[in-house]
Design brief:
3 domains; four-stranded antiparallel β-sheet; 31% strand; single chain; alpha+beta
Amino acid sequence: MKQKKMLVVLAFLISVGSAAIGEFDIKVGDSMDHVVNSLGAPLGKAKAGSQTIYIYDGGNIVFKNGKAVEVPKNYEASAQQKKKEREAYEQQKAAQRQFAVQQRAKGFVWYDSQWMTTEQRALKKAKERERLLAMAEEAKEQKRVAAEAAKQKRLASAPKLLLLNWNLSHDKDGTRFVEGSVKNISSEVIKNAIATAHLYLYSGKFFAANEALLELNPLLPNQISSFYIHFPDREGYRCEMSFKTLSGKTLRHKIEE
């Protein structure tokens, strides 16, 4: 009777060992049922045309018409490694949860990816608010500077003088002169403004240029000043005007319509 019991126990151990050895014994041609019975339910499933893919720790098993057509090599070793990794991850998460319980019991709080006291959190939040306020002020200042630069660029490119009139004429001896008037249409006081007259011949070829200071110096905003430019030459048919300061800076102008 005792011998019979020993044989039963031995048979049971052999069957368990065989099941463990055959747990990952998956090969091409196995049915879906066999795979599920051996490995359990898959972690996920996917479809790719006529193929069905079962996702396991050891890799993906591809089925077609209910039969396995692709099985990862070294499946058992891969599955065991994945299982170990998953168990290690779960252990790590459990340890982290336990540690969190202990920290909260001590009065610590989780903030900014670390444990700290409520006082430390309050101080950190205050510093963060200060940093954000400083960033906001810096952005505001940058915006102001950019706006001022854009304003100055517009002012620099905007006409400062309005050419009201000009006329090319000649004296009794035949020498040429140009006279006219301009208005300061900017908000600036213009100092040492010079009017330059450019003479051209009948052919359109440039002939000569001469210049003179405006009669009013400085020229205040909205003030009008006349100018007179004399040429020692007796030639010149057409005249064009330009303006600048004594330092050579161009004064943009426009002509009154």
